[in-house]
Design a protein that fits this description.
This protein has about 130 residues and is mainly β. The protein contains no helices and six strands.
Length: about 130
Amino acid sequence: LEQQIPVGESVPLYTTFTFTDPIALYKTDDRYDDLVVAVTNQLLSTQDIKPRSSATLKNTSDTHTISPIDAYVVLYDEEDNAIQVGKTRVTELSPREEKNIFIVWQNKFEKKPVRFEVIPRYNPFTQTY
């Protein structure tokens, strides 16, 4: 996900992308199965001048700390097009730890979102085992 792509005075209608190099796929080791970040308590408020979102991230592992975690909030319109994205970073989550995240957008949305999702992302290959 990429935020705030400069488009000048243009109003983009859609975007496309192409992979320019062959895609390398890797099978992960079974030890990565324990690295799960659960998302709960998802809220979105668009009533104020500055819309905001909150959620709780939880490391479900009993043994491994996960760090860092980028949490993206993606908002969709009635046609299921992504219309806004926000991002925040959690430095680390210890085993079974929960942390609340918050994202505030600086301006009211032009289009009203009808749904949203919170996507936690981290690199399993850089974790300590």
